[in-house]
Amino acid sequence: RPKGAGPDVLLSVNPFRTIPRLYDLPDGWRRAATAAAERKSSSTPPHVFSVAERAWRSVLSAAGTPQALVCNGESGAGKTEACRQMLRFIAHASADCRAVSAAAGGAKEEASKLEDAVLNTTCVLEAFGNARTKHNHNSSRFGKLTCLGVTPHGKGGVVSSCSFRTLLLERSRVAGQAAGERSFHVFYWLLEARGLDPDSYAMLGGTARSPAPPAATEAADTIYAASEEEAEGEAAEGRPEMDAKLAGGAEGEAAESEAAPGDTIADDPIAGGTDDGEVKTEAGEAAPSSELAVVEAALAALGFSAADVAGVWSTLLGLLELGNVAFIAPGGEGDSVRSEGGGSSLVEEAAPLERAAEALGVPAAKLQKALTMRTHTALAGRGSSSQIPLSPSEAAEARDALTRHLYQHVFDFLVLRLNAHLAPPSSGGKGGEEARSLMLLDIVGFEDVGSNSSSCSNSLEQLLINYANELLQRLFNAHVFEREAALYKAEGIDDAAVSYTSNDAVLAVLSAAPYGLIPLLEEQGKLGERGSSAAFSLEVFRHHGRTRHVAKPRRLSAGEADGRVFVVSHFAGDISYDSRHFVEKNVEALHKDLHDLLPLLAGYAKVVLATTMPTAPPPRWGKKKTAGKKVPSATAKIRGSFGISSTFTSQANALLETLQSGTPHFVRCLKPNSAQTGGDFDSALVLAQLNSLGVLETVRIRREGFPVRTDFAEVWALGWAAVVRVTPQASRLSAKQRAEAVLQRLPRDMWKLGHTKAFLRDGALGLLEAELAAEKAGSATAIQAL
User: Fold this and answer.
1) Backbone phi, psi, residue 410, to 5°
2) Whole-number Å distance between alpha carbons of 272 and 138
């Protein structure tokens, strides 16, 4: 990055192997970065630490402008590791400042372990939100914005608070996964710790029925049962007091979730370990060998009691048992238990149902009825209700919807508790400088799961992820290209206008009301039982079939049907979507009977729901009264319910506004090959990523424009010797005229003068520096000759 160049874009390539000392944190690194900052140089090597250092110094500057580290790229490109290491660097800088301040003051400052706690949250969130996919062993299946509060302290600054905002957890992964993929890490680690086989659980792709829980789990269940009231009280309070001591003591960092130096995504299936399960702390001490033990240690350091932890595990085991509840049609064979209502589906085996009901604290009969029956309210007349039996497939979908719904609440519960624990302590009325904002965004890049697979199709999840990436590309355009064009115009360099590919049109196709794809999808959801995914597909082609941003596919993959597949021309390229189940996924509301079941849950599931749903909203499928009339469920949905896509777009746009409030620093992560092997560089694959991330567009504009900007005084400092030797009176000219006199020695197409600074092409400064060196050498030779 030449001095004065436009905004930095760091390219971070996942090496898929260990590189010794790649992520070491020696004092020498910070000394080099400090020296570079003091001489206003950009000579620090391209590294995620360089980006973190620049953002850290900027947020602590006099201006105190909010800073945002935006890290994105394809799955498997190393985003999680890059964000983890930048967060680790920031925590290290904060801890260094505390230590220096305490030493200088001579007083024993309380060793706040907030930095360690922030790192521990990475372990927890990756356990519950990351999963193994075909492309990545530790793929983040949600977007995460880490918001750090940074307070100036002495000659540096300290992290004083932390909070998280999450986006679009891929909860569909809870109930089932594509071939060769897995559910969230925590399920497998929990079963491994309990001595249970994942293949025994249908939710994890198994076919066998789960065995009864082993006796080893009784101790944890006893701890939970003994402390249930205490746990409920803590969760209901919602904002527990911050521990004075986090992450396991003054020196211990056993629970810290960071990879050993050089670990990559492929080698790091857990947050801070290797495939053998052994975890090393930064000090090199051995941490708990079990992945679950690492998570439990992190939870304990973050204020979760033994009762909390046991309760969360009990709830997850209950969801796994719930996934094993299978249904058959009446008259089927096997150990059947007939539901109330006669003609409804039968539960094939009673044991999983009973274990799930016990873990969730609800009577098995009520759970069974809610899964196999649905209350229907008539659309006409007096709105009379009737019980409708569900077919086995409908009952299975109701079961899956309940598991997805409850897991989302567990995830949200953890985030709320983490945010409460990491919130700044009360100032007690004392004044102090307001914390400044430093943000880190970790989100998957444009996703096309169907590009290299005939068995997978892009669905609603991919459409929403790609919409978020279009917004991030819009941010990138605004910060890199539009500001570039505005600067040229302000400096009077109109003939160097920047031309770039805008994605405003595709954003309008996706989200502009009333006929954007997402508004059309929401409209189908509001139609209740009259809405369908097929109707949504028809509406898409009716409104966009003749535009250049939506089209029908030229050829269909296996399992795709003509008429339901549409292609969107994203900034990253054409991506096809199979609209099957779009509406169902978007609404995914629990039917009234399941919704009415939620208040009946007891045990820790009740604690979770009390935290995430402090005031239970009316059920989407229930009755509402309007003007004295009973409104049936389908009409109730039209009166203001919102689907997943609407919620997500609101969150994504709010995220964009937050990022726009500060100065972004972009880290574009690249995957060198699809096989996740070290030393293999697939040029075509990397080129496609560079194009989809806007990097090639940046390079083009840089080459066509004038990326080096410097003030007139510096130009004069580099070339005055040669100019004065030829034109002695040049020193009496204005600053701009002196700069022009220097630059006239270069080819005319290599520079332009603005109103306040000089704009140079790459290499111009090098030529001036070489000329200055030659002048100095000549002068030295002349002096020596005398």
Assistant:
1) -65, -45
2) 11
Region 388-392 average pLDDT: 91
- Give the amino acid at 408: Q
Q: Are 717 and 709 in contact (CB under 8 A)?
A: no
Q: What is the 8-class DSSP label of residue 715?
A: H
pLDDT digits (tens, 9 = 90+) for 278-337: 333 333 333 445 899 999 999 999 999 999 999 999 999 999 999 999 999 886 544 344
Kindly report the CA angle at 679 between 674 and 682, in degrees rounded to 5? Answer: 40
Q: Which residue has the tokens 């003609």?
A: 343
Distance CA 377, CA 383 (A): 6
Q: How many CB atoms lie within 10 A of CB 337?
A: 15
Q: Computed from CA positions of residues 468, 67, 239, 111, in that sequence, does the dihedral angle turn out positive or negative?
A: positive
CA separation, residue 167 to residues 257, 416, 442, 512, 646 (Å): 21, 14, 10, 20, 12
As a whole number of angstroms, the distance between CA 678 and CA 311 comes to: 41
User: What contacts 135, CB < 8 A, 6 or more positions away?
Assistant: 74, 75, 76, 671, 674, 676
User: β-strands 327-328, 156-167: how paired?
Assistant: unpaired
Amino acid letter for position 38: E
Looking at the DSSP bridge assignments, the partners of residue 424 are: none
Main-chain phi, psi angles of 38, to 5 degrees:
-65, -35
611: three-class secondary structure by DSSP = helix
Can you spell out the DSSP letters for 158-175?
EEEEEEEEEE---THHHH
Q: Six-digit token pair at 40? A: 């206003």
What is the pLDDT averaged over residues 764-784? 78
Residue listed under structure tokens 């519950």: 128
Q: What is the pLDDT of residues 552-566, one digit of tens each?
A: 887 766 555 567 899
Closest CA to 436 of 5, 63, 3: 63
CA neighbor of 633 nearest in space, from 404, 460, 386: 386
Q: State which amino acid sits at residue 426.
A: S
568-580 per-residue burial string, b: 16 or more CB within 10 A, e: under 16: bbbbbeebbbbbb
Q: Specify whether the CB–CB gap between 565 and 556 falls below 8 A.
A: yes
Characterize the bridge pairing of strands 346-347 and 373-377.
Answer: unpaired
Angle between helices 517-526 and 460-476 (to 10 degrees): 140
Contact 79, 669 (CB under 8 A): yes
* Pairing, β 565-570 against β 758-760: unpaired
Contact 356, 321 (CB under 8 A): yes
Q: Are 472 and 497 in contact (CB under 8 A)?
A: no
What pTM was computed for the model? 0.79
Predicted pLDDT at 315: 96
Q: What is the DSSP string of 412-472?
A: HHHHHHHHHHHSPPP-TT---PPPEEEEEEEEE----TTTT-SS----HHHHHHHHHHHHH
Q: Please tell me whether the peptide bond between 618 and the residue prior to it is cis, using omega within 30 degrees of 0.
A: no
**727 against 648, higher pLDDT:** 648
Q: Where are the alpha helices (DSSP H) in 261-339?
A: 291-301, 306-323
> Stretch 247-256: mean pLDDT, rounded?
31
State pLDDT tens for residues 520-554.
Answer: 999 998 887 788 999 999 999 999 988 889 998 87
DSSP codes, 522-580: HHHHHTGGG--HHHHHHHHHHHHTTSSSEE--SS--TT--TTTEEEEEETTEEEEEE-T
Amino acid at 758: A
Query: What is the separation of C-alpha 44 from the centre of its chain, rounded to a whole number of angstroms?
Result: 28
**Site of tokens 């953002």:** 55
Would you give the DSSP letter of residue 739? Answer: H
User: Beta strand pairing status for 663-670 and 67-73?
Assistant: parallel
Structure tokens, 687? 């080129």
Query: Which pLDDT belongs to residue 98?
Result: 78
For residues 449-476, average pLDDT: 84
pLDDT of residue 178: 84
Name the residue with tokens 């049109």.
505
